[in-house]
Amino acid sequence: MRAYLASSIGVACAAALVLPLALPASAAPTVSRTPALTAPAGESAVPGSTQSLPLRSLPSERATGAARQGLARSDVRPFSLVGIVWDDPEAELNGSVQVRTRAIGTGAWSGWQSVETHNHAHAADPGTPERDSGTVRGSTAPLWVGASDGVEVRVRAEAPRSGTGPAALPRGMRIELVDPGDEPGTEPAGEVDPATDPVVDPAGEDTAQGPEVPEGTDTGTTSGQVPAPALTAEESAASAVNAELAPLGATEIPELTKEQTDAELAEQFGEEAAAAKPYVGPRPRIVTRKGWGADEKLRERDFVYTKSVQAAFVHHSATGNNYTCKQAPSVLRSIYRYHVKSSGWRDIGYNFAVDKCGNIYEGRAGGVAKAVLGAHTLGFNTNSMGIAVLGTYSQSTPPSAAVTAVARLTAWKLGLYGKDPRAKTTLTSGGGNRYKKGTKVKLNVISGHRDGFVTDCPGTQLYNKLGTARSASAKYQGR
């Protein structure tokens, strides 16, 4: 089994690639460092911004004495995503958050929209360098509101229980208004109407091929492809770790059939090593970080890996369902900026994202085939991966295209690590509200976030579809 270095084109950077068929002996996270490189002269700043506005105390609620904070209607610079952060990441916001926003163009104010307050379960594990960096803040889930230039906020603490004093709100609360910037040059695949989208049968013929690639879309496989414009040093490093799957600077990793996937593995690792992992599903199309326009200067430079990928935790992003699939890259850029600039994480927390049309996106940098340490399931980030389905699925049924995409992604990625999607696996808790640190926990290989932490995530409606995803994933693997 061969280790290899991903080569970059015209840039002296190489990141150590940790392959699924050649894993490090220790389960402890390992750090792959990329050289500090100089970006091309005259490079312009990547668009996107964050406005941070402090909330002000409001008179306590007369009937209960519950504490309140808020922000009166305010004119602000354009933004599309909102969230509330506070100083102490260990403090919880026990109460409700509602926002109203003014749409750019029409000038109309929305009704009050609720923001998911219990977001602390999406984070790096306790005791890890990312968690203990000193930059991490408490935060709500982000909410996608679309292009807006006005905002109003009200936060209310839980009403006190009988015999107790009023609950306090966290210190240092402020609203974060995120502008994702302009769309990247390549758009994701076309729209799918969730109301008419058929259920995909993985056992059928010519099924689960993912959204159709629009005519003229660059698949990253054209001979002699030259990335345009030139990649920055950070973009080169993030792309180089996928060099065995697509050219440097590719906006997507193209899908392969089962036969093509098996042939690629045999070419990379040799016939004998590939034969030892016969149940690897066909590789799905994956939009790279370059494809969705990630600003690679936002994240920390190094990539951090764990030993293996023994489980996949499925999440919903809780950002709401009011987005189109063409807007999904903007939603992702907003979540990424919110995780890094507002919440203080090293990178976006999820390893992958899936939109309502079934497009799959690369999440945290480090290589889509590798065991990249994420910050998605507090206590169980080691030896797992996190997949966020963009949207809120507590009451809304997830589109079948999204469920199918989860099945296709897990069939490939878990297959690389020899995992049966229908099986159980044992992970050791890093600490959380469901399992104490050090507890060995038997979990489904494809689990919902709530299986490792007391939370609503991934929403009841999406959680109820995980059985379907497990069965479909196993079929894609050929089991």
From TrEMBL:
InterPro entries: Amidase/PGRP_sf (IPR036505), Amidase_domain (IPR002502), PGRP (IPR015510), PGRP_domain_met/bac (IPR006619). The keyword Signal applies. Residues 298-459 form the N-acetylmuramoyl-L-alanine amidase domain. GO terms for biological process: peptidoglycan catabolic process. Residues 284-432 form the Peptidoglycan recognition protein family domain. SMART domains: Ami_2, PGRP. It holds the Pfam family Amidase_2. Residues 1-27 form the signal peptide. Keywords: Signal. SUPFAM superfamilies: N-acetylmuramoyl-L-alanine amidase-like. It comes from the Bacteria. Belongs to the N-acetylmuramoyl-L-alanine amidase 2 family. PANTHER family: PEPTIDOGLYCAN RECOGNITION PROTEIN, PEPTIDOGLYCAN-RECOGNITION PROTEIN LC-RELATED. This is N-acetylmuramoyl-L-alanine amidase. It comes from Streptomyces ficellus.
